[in-house]
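Structure in, sequence out. Go:
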C-alpha cells in the first residue's frame, strides 16, 4: 500500500507490517546562496529536522528513504553544510536506524557528511517491491522500467493562485501522471543504447500497459518550486523522463498536500 501522508510532502509504503517513509529534496544549506546575495538569515536546518521528526512520530516507519538533494550546493559542500548536515543525521539516527539516500544532482561529496551506517544508492534509483524510486535528474536504472509505479523528486512542483489584487500565492503539490511502459522503454533505449545492445531490453516492449509516475513535492518548506500552471518561454520540465515527451504532462493530475484534487495541469493553466 502506498499512501500520501496528509498535510506532509511524504509517502508511506506499507507491506507485510514493514513501513517505509519516502521524502525528497531536503536542500539543507540553501541559506548560503542568499548570503552571497547579501541576505543574511540564520540556518533553518533545525526547523526541517523538527518537521521530519514530527513526521516520523506520526507515521512510525521502519525506514526512511530520501530521494536525493540532501544538501543545496551541487559539487562540493559549504562550511555550513559540514556543520549542519552531520548533526541533522546523527539526531535523525537517534529516531530511526534505517535511513537510505538516493543521490540527487546536488549530492556531490555527500558521503563524508553522513554517518557511515546510512546507505547511499546511485541516482538511477532502487526498487521497493513494485515501486521504483529515483531522484529524477537522470534516467532511472533499467530494472525500474519493470515497476508499476515510478516515484521521483527533483521538480519541486507548485501551483500558483492569483487573487483579485494581482498577488500570487504558491503552494506545493503532488503530480500523478500515467505513461505507457513500452513507450518509456523505447525512449530509454534510444537515449542509452546502440542498436546492437537493445535486445536485452526489448522484452519491455512486448507487454504495453499504463503505469503511473508520481512527482513528489519538495520537503523543504523554505524553497520555491516550479509553478506547473504558469507558462515560461523556453522553459521545459527538468529530467529526461519528462523531456522525452513520453508522459502527457498536461493530462497529469494535481493534488494539494491535504489531498484535494485540483484537476489536470491543462485545466489549471488558466488560473495562475
Amino acid at each position: 500500500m502506498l499512501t500520501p501522508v496528509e498535510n506532509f510532502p511524504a509517502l508511506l509504503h506499507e507491506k507485510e507490517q514493514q513501513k517505509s517513509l519516502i521524502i525528497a529534496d531536503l536542500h539543507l544549506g540553501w541559506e548560503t546562496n542568499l548570503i552571497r546575495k547579501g541576505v543574511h538569515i540564520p540556518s533553518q536546518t533545525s526547523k526541517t529536522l523538527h518537521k521530519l521528526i514530527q513526521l516520523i512520530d506520526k507515521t512510525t516507519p521502519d525506514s526512511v528513504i530520501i530521494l536525493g538533494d540532501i544538501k543545496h550546493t551541487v559539487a562540493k559542500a559549504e562550511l555550513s553544510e559540514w556543520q549542519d548536515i552531520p548533526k541533522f543525521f546523527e539526531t535523525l539516527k537517534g529516531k530511526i536506524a534505517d535511513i537510505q539516500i538516493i543521490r540527487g544532482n546536488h549530492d556531490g561529496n555527500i558521503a563524508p557528511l553522513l554517518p557511515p551506517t546510512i546507505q547511499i544508492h546511485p541516482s538511477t534509483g532502487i526498487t521497493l517491491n513494485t515501486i521504483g524510486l529515483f531522484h529524477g535528474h537522470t534516467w532511472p536504472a533499467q530494472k525500474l522500467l519493470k515497476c508499476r509505479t515510478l516515484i521521483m523528486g527533483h521538480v519541486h512542483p507548485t501551483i500558483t493562485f492569483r487573487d483579485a489584487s494581482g498577488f500570487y500565492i504558491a503552494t506545493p503539490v503532488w503530480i500523478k501522471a500515467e505513461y505507457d511502459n513500452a513507450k518509456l522503454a523505447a525512449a530509454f533505449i534510444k537515449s542509452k543504447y546502440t542498436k546492437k545492445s537493445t535486445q536485452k531490453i526489448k522484452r519491455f516492449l512486448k507487454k504495453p500497459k499504463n503505469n503511473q509516475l508520481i512527482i513528489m513535492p519538495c520537503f523543504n518548506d523554505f524553497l520555491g518550486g516550479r509553478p506547473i500552471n504558469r507558462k515560461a518561454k523556453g522553459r521545459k520540465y527538468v529530467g529526461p523522463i519528462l523531456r522525452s515527451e513520453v508522459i502527457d504532462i498536461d493530462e497529469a493530475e494535481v493534488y494539494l498536500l491535504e489531498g484535494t484534487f485540483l484537476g489536470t495541469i491543462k485545466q489549471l493553466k488558466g488560473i495562475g
